[in-house]
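G., before I forget:
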Amino acid sequence: MDRRLHAFLLNAAILVGAPAAPLAAHAQDAVGAPAETPQVVEPRVARREVKAPAIDAENFEAGLFIGTISIEDFGSSLLYGGRFAYHFTEDVFAEATIGSAKAGTTSYEDLSGSAQLLTDGERQYTYYDLAVGWNALPGEVFFGGRRAMPSAVYLTLGVGSTNFGGDDHFTVTPGAGFRLLVTDWLAAHLDARDQFFNSDLLGKDKLTQNLQISFSLTAFF
Amino acid sequence: MHPFLITVTFLLASLVPFGAGAATAETVEVQDPYIDLHSGPGRGFPVTQVVERGASVVLLRQRTDWVKVRTDRDREGWVNRKQLERTLTPDGAEVRLPGPAPDARVAHRWEVGVGAGDFDGADTVAVTGSYALTESLFVRADVSQLLGEYSTGWLGTAGIGHIFMPEWRVSPFVSIGGGVVYVEPNATLVQTSDRTNSTAYAGAGLRGFLSDRFLLQAEYRQFVIFMDTNDNEVISEWTVGFTHFF
């Protein structure tokens, strides 16, 4: 039986409905046609198991920093804080920083002897900063002839808020830093940042620059 | 103890366990013709070793797109993820190292971003997050700090949005939603009271892909602030932000 006749019989069987089905089956049996369409190509799909490797992906970095900040008009103070970063690629990372310092006194306050422009609480300088960083100059640092440590000079640009003098100020912070990987997971940083914000603490509204230099230790995890 | 010091101490304490280093390792068989072992986790670091197909290496740790491996001769180096994409474990399973999928731009689910902008004259710092329901439909949540000359405050919103051409390099999108705005006058001004109001917004913006992981977003949103009095306030906001998707 050729294929067209075969197909016709099958269609007929479907059209006539269930009662005709045994008949069609019988017709097939009579000519010895196979009950199923023969499989020409057998698919050889070797399905492989896919698994995630049992290794640490260490793209987070967290640590502490200590340094000095020059708060405009209020002298230099000890600065300390924490930083938390996520490394997207070998070039780009995002970083959140919180920091705190206690502002000193202005020259006016020192000279007048008793005048206090700010209360003790208002002298507390705290900020947060959300930054994007770029590892501009990656490289290696050599110690003697046997030891090489990966390093990078990076640039950051952040936005955030600084609480000082009883008010929150919108703050833009450009910065540059140097990171040295002492071990695979421990890094040491040197950072210089400048925090810009508008302040009217001394009467006139002006853009203040608050330069900071800090050293930090961070861990990758 | 100052709350800030407590936070810092907690951070310091939480660093200790990381010192344990790579506790796990996995042996795989190289399937690429060869792999390059660099001296550090970056493309610029010199290649110090080459390992051929069929040899086995131990995966130690991953940093961004680079995997630190140890060869059977006990040498260590960093290999790009792409050269390890076809490695097999000893029992024949494929190893899939974490990284962006080829169709990540269209098929990703999550977006997290940071931005800055202007809300009715006040500067804003914004953190945004969104989850894709389909390729073009997403739900989002945003928190912004408002830092104005005369007042400061917070804005929290949630909404739903639509991306018109998710496969285009630059695509327009729209969104609507609602939230809460809290405003506090600055200390140096004559006292008026703090206030919290509910708000609703409609917005439109443009987003453009920078790579398979990042995009830039610019958005304009118009807010209606529901006041206790009968006069509702209409406020404009624009934001520019940097977003990571995965």
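The first strand of chain B starts at residue 26 and ends at 29. The mean pLDDT of chain B is 85.

More on Monday.
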